[in-house]
Amino acid sequence: MNFEWDINKNISNQQKHGITFEEAQSIFDDLSAIIFEDDRFAYGESRFIIIGQIYLETLNKYILGIVVYTERADKIRIISARKASKQERKLYE
After folding, report:
1. Are 67 and 80 in contact (CB under 8 A)?
2. pLDDT in tens, the chain (93 residues)
3. What is the pLDDT of residue 78?
4. pLDDT for the residue 42
5. DSSP string over 7-59
6. Residues contacting residue 50 through CB under 8 Å, at least 6 positions apart
7. Range of the domain at 77
8. How far apart are CA 68 and CA 63, in angstroms?
């Protein structure tokens, strides 16, 4: 898979949520991950939410996380990444 993201958004996401987009890529390796379309707003493009395990290299551990992304041509563009909420954890379990 090929990934891309906005550099400044990656920095702000890491500061806010403690997860880099480099680390967020690992969620796509989780064979148990759940993917659904994010249709909460009219974004002007199809967006998806994936719930799964993210490997945090800086902490050397996995967490259950959420990644919002879109698909552009042959690339996955990561928009945001964060730790899953209690409600989101229930969806995964």
Report:
1. yes
2. 899 999 999 999 999 999 999 999 999 999 999 999 998 888 888 999 999 999 999 889 999 999 999 999 899 999 999 999 999 999 998
3. 98
4. 84
5. HHHHHHHHHHHS--HHHHGGGGG-TT-EEEE--SS--SS-EEEEEEEEEETTT
6. 27, 28, 33, 34, 35, 66, 67, 69
7. 2-92
8. 16
Copy the structure tokens of residue 83.
């730790």
Note whether 62 and 54 are within 8 A (CB): yes
Q: How many domains does the chain have?
A: 1
Residues 63 and 30: their CA atoms lie apart, in Å, by 11
> If you search the block for the tokens 């890529």, which residue do you land on?
25
Pull the structure tokens for residue 54: 């993210």
What token pair was written down for 24?
């967020």
